[in-house]
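Box 4.2: Ligand-aware structure prediction
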Amino acid sequence: MGIFEKLGLKKEEKLDKGVEKSRDGLLGKLGKAFVGKDKVDAATLDELEDILITSDVGVKTTIEIINRIEDRVARDKFITQSDLQKILREEIAALLMESGDDRPVEFDAEFKQKPHIVMVVGVNGVGKTTSIGKLAYMYKKAGKDVMLGAADTFRAAAVEQLEIWSERAGVPLIQQGQNADPAAVAYDTVSSAKSKSADIAFVDTAGRLHNKKSLMNELGKIKRVMGKVVDDAPHEILLVLDASTGQNAMQQARAFTDVVDVTGLILTKLDGTAKGGIVIGISNELKVPVKYIGVGESIEDLQVFDKKAFVDALFGKSHT
Ligand code: GDP
Ligand code: GDP
Ligand code: MG
């Protein structure tokens, strides 16, 4: 049984709603590019290029997609709007599949090592704390022993915010209050997870700008300290990116992946943006898998990223 059945969630409906704006944007613009035409011409491809770039697919990935489509258009001379939509869907799906395993990330796999330590990083306001709350809920519901660590000690109310999520999800929180040394909190969290034989622990961190070197170094310290308690901890470093910030998210992703070994991405706020194309560009350019997507503000609004389901939701149900 898949996790969504276990959770009793209607996965497809949520995903459909989550990418509604992106889908309407993409298909709407595609329709307009075709007004008064009965086949794809050079001008349509130019417009398609603009559409992809303004959907935040990114220049590099857009060019790859356009090149693939040009090849096909050159082969099959007569291509209608619905053909183009179908080809675009196929090429985007192919590109996503090439960027890694085509299966959704195995979320409830047996962890190689217990406790499995996950550190969550990113700039301010992208949705780190919220995503941790949702993850705690997801893993708890799947029967895992979850623990949270409040290593964002920098901002007032950051600890309280995580505390509220820990209560909602019904999982314990390790904290030392505001202004505590984040590395010390991380150390405590991992020690506690180890002594209580927790399955998984999520460690929240303060938002930091990727261009502030000292703060980026602080992440290195937090990470090292965890490794002293449990071998190879943190086992995962998840970078959270706000999908609605488009190319800015792409830059953050490049900067963070340069200094920390990011093992996966959480793309939040897909529900609030028409620029869901970022999902395609980011997986293609960074070769770091998108593991989860945020499609709303409530506790159930986090999904394990499923490439195939994403393409289906983006283009509407396939009729072929
Ligand atoms: P942090 O600073 O990275 O820890 O960000 P927070 O977790 O505090 O989230 C910042 C804001 O983004 C909050 O108002 C959240 O409710 C909101 N948020 C987070 N994830 C999502 C999402 O997937 N969709 C929407 N619509 N809002 C989200
Ligand atoms: P400013 O543009 O340098 O004024 O940046 P801020 O107002 O964000 O932060 C002021 C100072 O607080 C910075 O020089 C940092 O040393 C420190 N600081 C900011 N954010 C963080 C954080 O997330 N963690 C920690 N430990 N220190 C921070
Ligand atoms: Mg936070």
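In the box above, the bound molecule is magnesium ion. The chain has a mean pLDDT of 88.
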